[in-house]
Amino acid sequence: MTTKDQSLGPLANDGLSPEERDLFSDARPVPYQPYPIEVVEKFVNWVRANSLFMLAFGTGCGAVELNPLMTARYDAYRFGFQPRPTPRQASVFMIGGYASVKTLKRIIRSYEQMQGPKFVVALGICPVNGGMYWDSYNTVNQFDLYIPVDLYITGCMPRPEVLLAGVLELKKKIKEGRADGHNRYIENLDWYKANQKRIIKNWDMPDYSW
Amino acid sequence: MVEGLLAPINLIIAALGVGFLLPLIARSSASIARGLFWLTQVFLLLISSVWLLRLIDGAPAVEVITAGIQPPFAINLYFGLFEAFVVSAVNLSAILGSWYLIDYFKSRAASMSVYLILTMGISGMVMTRDLFNLFIFIEITALATYGLLALDKRPASLAAGFKYIIATSLASTFFLLGTMLLYHLTGTLNIDDMLLHMDRITGPVGLAAGVLLLVGVIIELKPYPANGWGLDVYETVPAGVAAMISVGVSAGAFFALYKIVPLLGDFLPVVAAVGGATFLASNFIGLRQRNVRRMLGYSSVAQMGLMTLALAVLYMLGKSEYVTLVIGGLFINHLLAKAGLFWLAGVVDRPRTEAWVGLRHRPILLVILGILLAALAGFPPFPGFWGKWELIMQLSAGELPFWVFVVLLGSLLEAAYLYRWFGFALQDDETRAPAVEPVKLIPVGLFALSLLATGHLVADWLGLEAPRVLVPIYMGIILYALDGMPGRLKALLVLGAFAVYAYPVVMGLEGLHWLFGLILLLGGGVIAFAVLHRSDARRGFYPLLGMLLFSLASLLEASSTLEFFFAWEVLTLSSYLLISMGRGAREHILTFLMFSLGSAFLILAGFGFAYGETGSILLADLSKVEKSATLVFMLLTLGFLVKAGAAGLHVWLPGAYSEAEDDFSALLSAVVGKAAIFGLLLAAMHLAVNGVGAINQVLYVVSWLGLISALVGALMALFQEDVKKLLAYSSMGQVGYIVTAIAVSSQLGWVAAGYLTVNHLLFKGLLFLAVAGLVYQTGTRLMYQMGGLIKNLPMTYISVLIGIIAISGVPPLTGFGGKWLLLNALFDKGWYWQAGLAFFASAVAFLYLFRLIHTVFLGQRKQAHKDLREASWLLLFPQILLIVAIMAFSIWPKLLIDPIASSFAGIFPEALIWDGTMLKTRLGYWDGFMVINIVAGVFLVPLLILLFLSRFMQIQKVKQFNIVFAAERPETPETTHYAYNFFSFYEKALGPLLKPRATAFWDGVSEWSHTIGSTLRVLYTGNGQTYALYVLFYVVMIYIAVGGMG
Amino acid sequence: MSNDPKSIIEELSDHYQISEIKEQKADLLLLKIPKEDAVQFIRELRDGQNYTHLAFMTVIDYIESGIFTLTYMLHNYAAHHNIAVHVDIDREQTEMESIHELWVHAATYQRELREMYGIRFPGSPRLDDDFCLEGWDEIPPMRREFDTVSYSRERFFDREGRITTDPREHMKQIMYPIHTDND
Amino acid sequence: MEFWAVKIGYFLITLGMVTVYGLLLGAIIARTMARVQGRIGIPYWQPFLDIIKNLGKRTAVSHGVMFYMGPVFRIAGGIGTLAFVPVIYGSEMFSNFHFAGDLLLAMYFIFFGQLGMALGAGESGHPFSAIGVARGLGQMTAFELPFVLAIIAVVIQYDTLSITEIVAAQQGGVSNWTLFTNPLAVAAAMLAFLGMSGYPPFDVFTAPNEIPIGPPTEYHSSFLALMATNRAIFASAKLILFMDLFFGGATGLIEMIIKTWAIYMVAVVVGASFPRFRVDQSIRFFLRVPTLIGIASIAFVQIFLLG
Predict the structure, then answer these.
(1) Which residue among A81, B6, B547, D206 is least crowded, i.e. fewest CB within 10 A of its CB?
(2) For residue A3, what pLDDT is reported?
(3) Backbone angles phi, psi at D291, to 5 degrees
(4) How many domains does chain D have?
(5) How far apart are CA B736 and CA B653, in angstroms?
(6) Which residues in chain C are contacts of A102 at CB distance < 8 A?
(7) Residue-number span of the structural domain to which D198 is assigned
(8) Separation of alpha carbons B72 and B462, rounded Å
């Protein structure tokens, strides 16, 4: 089942000093294929949609709108949506509003450390076009240049109801098998990496943070 | 003509004549004088030794009365076996001593003659049977000594000589007065005649006479506190002279005492007290000494005190037939060792003990020093060992526990300062190795060899099968002779010889001995195999290893307490020396030795009291002890508990186990430590099973002690950063369980003890060997400097993994069986509280075990360890054997439990029932075979499921740095590896419970001992007049003491 | 020693060239001091006058006058009084004596000022380490000559279709038309 | 052979049942907690979906052999513990492999999974895993003491180490339960149970915000699924052990479900009402009052029950 495309060779990891290079893995990720049996794939997609583990990483000011989602008023647990403290176990990455260059670096690391299939939801107007920070020296304007986004929820800030609607929309997308950000990222890894490295000047981590 | 020349009287005449002629001849030709001096000495030695041989062959003793006139106007000599022996020894020391004085005598012809006269005086003191003659010879000796001191012409010598002459003059005055009074009472001066008229020596006059006579001689022996005058001497004169004073003069004086003791029947307790006080006080003061010669001086005085004590006590008890063995042994031991040490002090010529560092790099010198010190400290096989053994036996038999205590305490103190000195000599500092002319070592070496030879002779004479008992020693000597060979060859030789020797030994044993034969010998052999991994020569290691392994065999073969104790002491000595080879062991070896000796002495006392009751030294006859069974059992148990590292008595253990060389640590913890368990079981088997006296209460206390050790060991192990220290504390804890199991004293308990012992051997050998490989590869013992080594040392990792599962008691490996048996035994006995504590201790043990494996093998690997290789296969091979054993015993516990149960068969009612593979007790049941199968099943099925699922996942192998690190990248492995102070919160939680109380207590004991030493020394003002006054006071005190008795 | 801030300043005026004294609020006094005397003066306030706390330090960019005005905000706990010490430094020769020896935490402020304005404080610990920015290689972003809009356009690529409005006008027209009357 | 086939078959049934029950119990507890907070909470099938979702993950990373085997050790520990505890008294089907060993075996086997998990987490190289393990193990030693004391009291009381016999001795009415015959032991054991179940105030070893859920912080995908399954099995096994020792065991499935749920609720209710202890505080807590109660329970048995 695991078809590893090694034609492109391992990653260069040239942001690291030579001594540091063998501390990190330099393997190149490969996209996964759907399950050979379609029913299984559909079933699993349904399950994935109903078991959304969100990475609890407040990347921007919008993260403050995520907390009410878990309270009695909105109770996102009903929809199988729950926070998870480590990227390893999470499947949904909520980008909480604007992303500064410095945060973007951490977002990339965390995103790459999540295990596929994984989904990205960007909330607020800032990830879309920079929002009120459009002219900042420090805030990215088009978030999807760096990370594949499955769903944008716009607004400054979007209220929890909107977020909830977004979650439901995401579930629909997953069920239909259209949330393919994970594979898109890996298939276009070089493009994404070039974009990322253009703005992140001190790239002192491996090219792909396993 | 020849016969005439050889007449004993010539010992006096020749020395005297040449002595007076020498100064004259020296004026004309110094070289002729020197030639004559040597010739005379040789002649003296010749006479005495020829006579010694003749007397040994059974020739009658010679009585010499000169000039046909009766004493006191002529000389009356008696030359029997003892006399010949002592005179020969003195002459030998004199001639060998003058070897060291060649340069000294070149400029001092007069000294040569005084030296001769001194020898003559001593011979006279030994030989004469006439009190007045004795007085004369005492005077001659004293004057000659003074002469030697005065001719040295240095202010210090002069001052010392002055004090000396004042005191000895006083002494001889008293002696003369006493002689007069006795003559008045008995009308004779001959000791033998006086003995015939003992009945006349009565009343106040008789008393005064006795006291004066006694005091006269005793003062010569420098009793504490009236001995301040005698000690400067050792420091100031050349080593050869000091040796002569220490050995020769004291020998003469002591022989004089020996002669007059029969006259002093009533005063014997006082004499004993004088000896005992001197022995103890001098050794206390010796602790404070940093000057080698002064220290040796105190040791001399102490030895004289011990001999005085022994002599008096043996006469008191009417056991004069043991005088030969006890006094003879102690005497020859003292003579050879002390003379040798003084000479050595002269050869090395470093006044301070601290300055002796670097001797390690002069192997011959070190070996000689080692032999002499071992002899002096009473280690086997030297004559002092036999003497002390018999002395303790007789003291115990005579129901004199106080004196037993004094003798043992004094000996312990003496060993403390002697071995502190040796510790300096063992220090590794090549730049400070002394330069010594080999020729100078001949006499010392000769004495060292004589000590070995006499040791053998005494053993032979005692009727022991000397070659068998002494086999560890001979192995040591033989291997030492072969020490030039390549390391691995020597290792193979040791192992081969051991295998050949041990196989029939094990085959010939049965019961408990057989079980421990397997544990100690088979286990020892397997673990000792690991020494092969080092290819360097390891000078000195293999002889000592041979000695150690063979002494284990001897321990098992021992049928009498004497043989047992002999082997035990050899084991102690060889482990001490082996530990001292560790690089950082210096600080810990003295503690190790002190506790080991303390333990040995407790055992000795125990054996002594057993002998006292039954009159037998057979081990089997220990079970006949009834009246003093509690005492004997307590002493033996305490002794063995010290070696088992029970809480409070464990302070020696961590240092010794961790600082010994890495492969030896395994042997030390896994095998040598088990000797104590063997001893405990032996003692319990013979004494505790009957439950006489208060033994059950003792066992109850022991059960708590064992578990407290288990808990303390586990808690201390939590906080160690040093991987070997962790294992050392772990050993302490695990042995604690064994001790408790023994204390349960039922079939379940002892089977548990045997099971735990075997298991501890397996897993601790495994862990120590694995750690040895680890330390060897990484070059560090600190766990936080390691990490992530599983990929580099996978086999070692598996060893440690199996080891910790076996230790922690997690099913299905062997550890659980031990815990199950132990807890069942405790429940069965009704010791519920102990069971709770045992549980808790084993849970705490789980913590340090995880830390061991985590911080070393898991977590982040340091960049420096990137290219480390797996440990040598020679080191892994014994580990594999041990793993195989653990696995086999895990699958078939019956393999292990059946033999253990059979070795205790018939002692207790059966409490273990086999039902197929199921083991049942009154309370519970356990089917080890089934458990391991079930566990294998529940482990393998999920594993297969996971492997299947893995086919549908792309599992990427990543490095340890590919972690979620709060979205950051880890900085360096050092900062990412959580290892240092791993259980700091536990320390915080338990707080004051974890203070090192035992260490503080023993530090206190050491401190107090030194303080006592200082306090006792306050009396020494250095002022001659004060010393003279002390002598007078002393006489008065003795008079009062004796009068009070009368 | 008087607790009254004014008398303190008067007292210190004998030794220091204090100018532009202004009592902003009851508990805040502004003053200016020449660059050379500044650290000595602050030390005097700290040790002699009980202004033991450095609340913050910051800088104002007067690009028109070609100066940076450093502000040290000192606080007196006993009197609950603040003194803001202004120090003018040249915008081109941006160097100032460090006060990290007076307050350890000043080093952090100085790192920030170094990063955001390019002011150097020789001797201040870890001065050149990254503070907020990582791997910044342009002119310091808070200096007023730094053109943040073109930087953003060049780097972060405006998304097509974005509309920018003046917030004030936008609010007036769309969101809150009623309020415009009362404004 | 046939004996084994039957036994294994029965055990598989028990195992499946217990797994389902354990997962459902988790959902029930979560819903109960949600109701307390005024929420509806997760659907009942959420734990199952989570496990399937994790099994359905398509990528994973492995830090090494021990990392890979850690969850296997863990689940083996859980299944093994269940295997050595009889679930329903008097039922051949639900008695598992209790005949392989007694109470001591079950108690020591609890460590098996902990050790394997700790090793796996250790190899991940994550410092938070190690910190979590250190804290967890440290706390475990502390609550082990009152637990063991309580068990000793029970063993003295019934004079046997066999779990079945302990249950048998409690049959014949509520008043025969250890809960009523030896309340001190039960008190000590239940306090220990609070620590064992990892709810507040004793949840510092998984502290999600400080050391992201501690030991399993690097685990994901199928590994996590195995661990979640084990959580259900292991928790149930422990509950069943407690039920057997202290609450009269169970003679039927319904009784078992009610009793174990009730025992679990103790930890949940306490957990819902308390903030978190630091690990040294929880160690000290367990070594004080619960230990004293444990000691008192042994004394109680020795004095009053045995005379």
Answers:
(1) B6
(2) 43
(3) -65, -40
(4) 1
(5) 13
(6) 132-134
(7) 2-305
(8) 40
Q: Which residues on A lie below 8 Å from B973 (Cβ)?
A: 23
Residue B498 has pLDDT above 60, yes or no: yes
- Please report the DSSP string for D147-174 in residue order: HHHHHHHHHHHHT---HHHHHHHT-SSG
Residue A70: which domain range? 26-199
Rounded distance between C-alpha atoms, residue B64 and residue B47, angstroms:
15
State how many domains chain A has: 1
Residues B802, B806, B807, B810: what is their CA dihedral angle, to the nearest 10 degrees?
Answer: 110
Residue among D79, D109, D222 whose CB faces B946 most closely? D222
Q: What is the CATH number of domain C5-130?
A: 3.30.460.80
DSSP B374-420: HHHTT-TTSHHHHHHHHHHHHHHHTT-HHHHHHHHHHHHHHHHHHHH
CATH of the domain at A30: 3.40.50.12280
CA atoms within 13 A on the CB side of C164: 11
- Contact state of D61 with A210 under an 8 Å Cβ cutoff: yes
Q: How far is the C-alpha of B340 from the C-alpha of B242, rounded, in Å? A: 11
Contacts of B983 in chain D (CB under 8 A): 134, 138
- H or E segment and range at residue D31: helix D2-36
Q: How far is B968 from chain A (nearest CA, A)?
A: 7
pLDDT more than 70, % of chain B: 98
pLDDT at A4 over 50: no
Those chains having 3 or more beta-carbon pairs within 8 angstroms of chain C are: A
Sheet with B913-915: list strands edge to edge: B913-915, B918-920, B925-926
Give the residue among A4, A3, A58, A14 at the shortest CA–CA distance from A193: A14
Choose, out of D7, D65, D112, D288, the residue to mutate when testing the contact with B (most B CBs < 10 Å): D112
| CB atoms A77 and D213 under 8 Å | no
Mean pLDDT of A111-135: 89
Q: Do C141 and A198 touch (CB under 8 A)?
A: no
Rounded to whole angstroms, how far apart are CA atoms C65 and A71?
54
User: Does A110 sit within 8 Å of B962, measured CB to CB?
Assistant: no
Q: Which residue has the tokens 């319990």?
A: B684
Give chain B positions within 8 Å (CB) of A86.
964
The domain ranges of chain C are 5-130
Q: Does residue A21 lie within any of the structural domains?
A: no
Provide the pLDDT for residue B510.
Answer: 84
Q: Worst-scoring range by mean pLDDT, A61-75, A79-93, B775-789, C165-179?
A: C165-179
The pLDDT assigned to B462 comes to: 79
C 140-179 near A (Cβ less than 8 A): 141, 146, 148-149, 151-152, 155-159, 161-162, 164
* Model pLDDT for residues B700-716, shown as the tens digit of each residue: 999 999 999 999 899 88
Q: What mean pLDDT do residues B362-375 have?
A: 88
Q: How confident is the model at residue A120 (pLDDT cuts 50, 70, 90)?
A: very high
Q: How far is D152 from chain A (nearest CA, A)?
A: 40
Contacts of B855 (CB under 8 A, 6+ apart): B783, B784, B786, B787, B977, B979, B982
- At B85 the pLDDT is 86
Q: Is the peptide bond before B381 cis (omega within 30 degrees of 0)?
A: yes
Q: What is the pLDDT of residues B522-553, one digit of tens each?
A: 888 888 888 888 888 888 888 889 999 999 99
Which subunits count as partners of chain D given 3+ CB pairs below 8 Å? A, B
A147 SS3 class = coil
Any idea where the domains of chain B sit in the sequence?
A: 1-129, 464-938
In D7-87, DSSP assigns E strands to: 59-62
The tens digit of pLDDT for each residue in B240-277 reads 888 888 888 888 888 888 888 887 777 888 888 888 98
Considering the domain boundaries, does residue A12 fall inside one?
Answer: no
Instruction: Give the C-alpha distances (Å, rounded to integers) separating C2 from B974, C5, C52.
Output: 55, 8, 16
Tokens matching residue B919: 């083991």
Minimum CA–CA partner of B804 in chain D: D115
